[in-house]
Structure to design on (332 residues):
């Protein structure tokens, strides 16, 4: 079978397409014939050895997949050959077939196509864990979402609205802002390029404060990092919750006097580790997300599809931070 392999640390140009042996399911595993793979920012990190996990090489990137069960290992009772499934696997997805621990998989709703399934679990799972499990977002609270036109950002906008919050979106362009408002944000801030000095950061903080009102944001969802984080934190409410989700703009340097003055919590969001530590809670969360999908309250925004042979280009486009929504790689 064909697979996209990382044999050396590097950028997407270092990936190769090769023939490898088909996987066999171990105990507690199923084999999925992959139909689609969601491209995500961690894909660009993991192939360059900049991610929390560093798998042994050679390995395939691709952390979320959808497809059809083609083989079932010992001790697996919840899945059968022919089941349509999605799975969050961190790496290994860019291959025609993948052996996956069954607990990482969920059966697809009949109405969910494979491309939306491959664009679903990482972004919505991350945002649901952040807003529900960690921030405990309440109806009527005000939520600021940075990077609101990206995969996790749009998911946070939709989930925040579904939970009854007032959602304020922040994005780098008017076009991206319009997409976030279309998906449920009530207002927004266009923040432009990375604010890399104190003067620009304070001006951005004033923008955030102007749109949220005097009380500040109850919850801030930050999948961006860099120079955006401090201005956002300056606009948080007393006893607010600041969610640290990701760092495509760089790891932020936060003055620790700010959480003291605001009485706020800074909460780390590492959903991949959380689902491994509590798979029962993970299954409950996925069921809740499928219910929101069935009600039409959440739905992945896929801006582009790529054929399997152009997997590296999908990762390049994603890492450029110019893409909106999700990018999906399809496998015949």
């Amino acid at each position: 079978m064909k697979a996209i392999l990382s044999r050396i640390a590097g950028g997407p140009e270092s990936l190769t397409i090769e023939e490898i042996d088909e996987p066999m399911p171990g105990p507690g595993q199923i084999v999925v014939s992959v139909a689609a793979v969601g491209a995500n920012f961690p894909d660009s990190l993991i192939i360059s050895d900049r991610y929390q996990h560093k798998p042994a090489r050679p390995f395939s990137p691709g952390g979320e997949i959808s497809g059809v069960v083609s083989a079932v290992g010992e001790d697996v009772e919840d899945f059968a050959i022919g089941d349509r499934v999605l799975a969050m696997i961190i790496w290994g997805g860019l291959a025609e077939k993948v052996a996956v621990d069954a607990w990482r998989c969920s059966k697809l709703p009949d109405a969910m196509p494979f491309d939306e399934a491959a664009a679903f679990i990482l972004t919505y799972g991350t945002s649901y864990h952040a807003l529900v499990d960690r921030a405990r977002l309440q109806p009527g609270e005000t939520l600021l979402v940075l990077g609101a036109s990206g995969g996790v950002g749009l998911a946070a906008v939709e989930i925040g609205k579904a939970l009854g919050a007032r959602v304020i979106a922040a994005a780098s362009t008017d076009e991206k802002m319009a997409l976030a408002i279309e998906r449920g944000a009530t207002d927004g801030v266009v923040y432009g390029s990375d604010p890399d000095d104190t003067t620009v950061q304070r001006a951005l903080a004033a923008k955030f404060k102007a749109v949220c009102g005097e009380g500040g944001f109850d919850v801030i969802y930050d999948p961006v990092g860099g120079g955006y984080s401090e201005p956002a934190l300056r606009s948080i409410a007393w006893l607010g919750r600041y969610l640290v989700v990701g760092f495509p703009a760089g790891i932020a340097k936060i003055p620790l006097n700010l959480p003291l003055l605001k009485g706020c919590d800074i909460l780390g969001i590492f959903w991949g580790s959380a689902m491994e530590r509590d798979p029962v809670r993970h299954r409950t969360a996925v069921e809740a997300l499928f219910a929101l999908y069935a009600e039409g309250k959440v739905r992945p925004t896929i801006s582009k599809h790529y054929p399997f042979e152009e997997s590296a280009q999908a990762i390049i486009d994603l890492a450029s931070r110019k893409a909106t929504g999700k990018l999906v790689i399809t496998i015949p």
